[in-house]
Amino acid sequence: MHDITAAGLEGTIRTYFDGCNEASAAKIVGCMEPDAVHYFPAGAPQGTFVGAKAIADGWIRAVGNLGSIWTIDRIIVDARKLEAVIEWTHFKPKQRVYLRGDEWYVFSRAGLIREIRAYYSCPTSTAPVKTHELGDFDYAASADAGMRITASESFVLRIPVGGRIADSMQSVVDLEIVGLTVQTDAAITGTGYTITVGFGASVIQEVLDSLYVDELIGRDPHDVREIWQQLYYGKAHWIGRAGATTMAQAAVDIALWDIIAKAAGRPLWQQLGGGRRSDIPVYNSHAGWLNYSIDQLKDEALRLLARGYSALKMKVGLADTHEDYRRVQAVRRAIGDDTVLMVDANQKWDLMQASFAARRFEDLGLAWLEEPLHPDDIGAHCTLKERTSIPIALGEHVYTSYAFRDYLANGAVDVIQVDVCRVGGITPWLEVAAMAHAHGIRVCPHCGDLMQVHQHLVKAIPNSWYLEVIPLWDVGPFEHQVRIADGKCLTPTDPGASTDLTALALQTYRVS
After folding, report:
1. 8 A C-beta contact, residue 416 and residue 441
2. Per the count of CB atoms within 10 A, which of 73, 196, 265, 382 is most buried?
3. HEC secondary structure over 23-72
4. What are 123-180's pLDDT values in tens digits?
């Protein structure tokens, strides 16, 4: 697609209407409702026309002075798909029309098709062959119509967690939600984000603003996998492939999938194929922070059991492994043997200490030992698996599908905890889940997204087990907050990826 000047546009229009009188040309443009639809024939010009007064004036002259009370804001034509998009203004807010082949679609301001009309394919014919009034019928034809990204804006929110929580790596008092909104010419906006534990959001936002946002304009969100590859191997590749660049790319990818699901009118899990209709069981990680006393650990665990949870996780990784054992033992005795219990070392140990701790914990009936070692050390994980019967879980700090492939191929992991915000988004997350399924390995994602996106993803695959939840707030920052009841995540039903932030959250917590 390429820009065409006002003179070129006018010439193309005059050529197209050669042999037509002004009345028939005006009828094509004004067709039926002169102030509602301005029809531009599919396949006539090839290129992108960016709205300027000169172009609008050239259009008006070409079709025989229809008056200056309306202006064409933008015309986009894709000759490969025989599509056109027109945005115009006429005593009312900007509206848009999508044209495909013989048909054009008039969209309401909500992005829903209002009516469809079809014309003979003969370029000189102006007689309508059918008219179908749809009202506000919820039919998502935006994909067929060639949706385009028109704008994007990054944001950072800083939200207190309601007190200090700690694991073996860090102490946290605030979370940062950093991401972007992506706007389209179909009046559909997608939201994507990633999470930090209070530091680094400005770095991720700079990656979004300087490396990614400009690459999205004019793209069709439905080309999400192609966009992912081009961003990954684009401007960020030299300095990236992990860390801040991948977390920023995750925000972009999530926003695009959010648009795709909204355009289809489905929750993301259904748009991805709907692997499981039933509600997904959850485990609660808010019960066992490392800064809690043993009495606090027991009280919180019993309180969560009373609320319907049947699976809990607690933190380990103190300098004294015997103290770790006493804490886990106390919780196990409090909750009984029937409750699922996991422990998480957050990469604190080397192989010697991890091996000792695993042997010490063998009698506690643990569902898994999480992140016992550095996440890049696949060899040490292989050795540790040979030394313990406790399943090994990891993945929240693994940034590439290649690394997950090597963990699986070497038999170094029992539970995959791939995090959509760390691995680069939904696109690579699905690849990792499929690899795990091929190896007979379960997926229990880390809740680095605060469960909003993962609640969809675990329902889209056959090998999910548990969804991790950390319910930090009574009222969360998302419009469609994840819902937990009786130890399960209730199935989301609203279209999209559940990523839209509330106006109150943006007003209260936005810092950039």
Report:
1. yes
2. 196
3. HHHHHHHHCCCCCCCCCCCCCCCCEEEECCHHHHHHHHHHHCCCCCCCEE
4. 333 333 222 232 332 333 333 447 899 999 999 999 998 888 878 788 889 999 999 9
First-to-last C-alpha distance (Å) of the chain: 34
Q: Among 18-32, 288-302, 335-349, 359-373, name the one with the lowest average pLDDT.
A: 18-32
**Residue closest to 192 by CA, chosen among 153, 240, 226:** 153
d(CA 292, CA 70): 66
- Helices (H) then strands (E): counts for the chain: 16, 20
In 198-302, where do the E strands start and end? 280-288
H-type alpha helices, 114-212: 201-207
* b (16+ CB within 10 A) / e for 206-216: ebbeebbbebb
Per DSSP, the three-state class of 150 is strand
Query: What is the C-alpha to C-alpha distance for residues 499 and 318, in angstroms, rounded to an integer?
Result: 35
The total number of residues written for the chain in this structure: 512
Q: What tokens were used for 469?
A: 């939840």
> Are 251 and 481 a contacting pair, CB within 8 Å?
no
pLDDT tens by residue, 286-303: 888 999 999 999 999 999
Which H, E and C letters describe 383-416, residue by residue?
HHHHHCCCCEEECCCCCCHHHHHHHHHCCCCCEE
Token pair for 186: 């179909």
Distance CA 297, CA 302 (A): 9
Contact status, residue 365 vs residue 343, Cβ threshold 8 Å: no
Tell me, what DSSP letter sits at residue 221? G
